Amino acid sequence: MTDMYHTLKIEQSGPVLEITLNRPEVRNAMNLTMVEELRTLFAGTVERGVRVVILRGAGGHFCAGGDVQDMMQARMQAGQDSSPEPYVRLNRAFGKLLQEVEVVGCVVIAILEGAVLGGGFGLACVSDVAIAMNNAQFRLPETGLGLIPAQIAPFVLKRIGLTATRKLALTGMALSAERAEAIGLIHTVVSSAEELGQALETVLEHCLRCAPQANQVTKDLLHRCMPPQNYELLLDEAARSFAAAVQGNEAMEGTMAFMQKRLPAWARTQGEKT
After folding, report:
1. Longest CA span, the chain
2. Cα Rg of the chain (Å, integer)
3. Is residue 15 within 8 Å of 52, Cβ to Cβ?
4. Are 258 and 159 in contact (CB under 8 A)?
5. Measured between alpha carbons, how far is 228 from 259 in angstroms, rounded to an integer?
6. CATH code of 126's domain
């Protein structure tokens, strides 16, 4: 199965499927290929007898968010007519992934370490159980790049509430694993590989004691207990807002500054004269 995927490593042991995001050279930043491979892999998991999915990253990081190179390519595809459609498609594909992972009929366990940024933060928010190493750093860096967390925001808001989401989204400040546990983003913090293995084994043992059909129906019921939300309409509109942001001057400067490893023109430190 692994040979079918270019950005993922796959291992399956009975009803447990382990997916490793495997682009360690870019801290597992998600490009469109990875998003499409994840969507393909999550589709039909229950039908294939999968009861638990473990989602983790290679090389000491979970996921550093979206790959800026993809956005640069989308900018080239937009061409001289400045069409927003390449950006809309790119952004919306990730939102569809989040929607699908959130409601998949098996238990999704996220193993989080190192960078958990942007889209990686979004994936953490749609997991059923989240275990983090104490070196994990959670952050929504989009506005610092002149962008918006378009597809991520609704899932972050559902997970941790409006107050915490506003602070993270509007400041880009980092959140430690301990603080992430305190606000309900994650469930367990561990400090070593041994502790991580033990915590994962405990969760797996309990998950596999639960009847698979009962778990599937319960998960569906819990999601339906939430206030109704037309995610398709909301995320379609959000993708267009993202496209508008990408084509604006702030995103041009922000992404260029990111590539050049410098602060964008609007950034200043406290005490700096305006």
Report:
1. 62
2. 19
3. yes
4. no
5. 40
6. 3.90.226.10
Alpha carbon distance 211, 88 (integer Å)? 40
Give every CB contact of residue 4 below 8 A, 6+ residues apart in sequence. none
Two tokens, residue 48? 């294939």
In the chain, the amino acid numbered 237 is E
Residues of the chain predicted below pLDDT 50: 274
**What is the structure's pLDDT at 71?**
73
The token duo for 240 is 């267009």
Q: Cβ distance 100 to 40 under 8 Å?
A: no
pLDDT score, position 274: 45
Instruction: Kindly state the tokens that stand for 159.
Output: 């997970």
Q: What pLDDT score does 2 carry?
A: 59
206 belongs to a structural domain: no
In a domain, 118, yes or no: yes
Q: Does residue 197 form part of some domain?
A: no
The count of structural domains within the chain is 1
**Domain span at 54:** 2-192+211-259
Which residues, other chains included, contact 251 with Cβ-Cβ below 8 Å and sequence gap of 6+? 145, 146, 147, 245
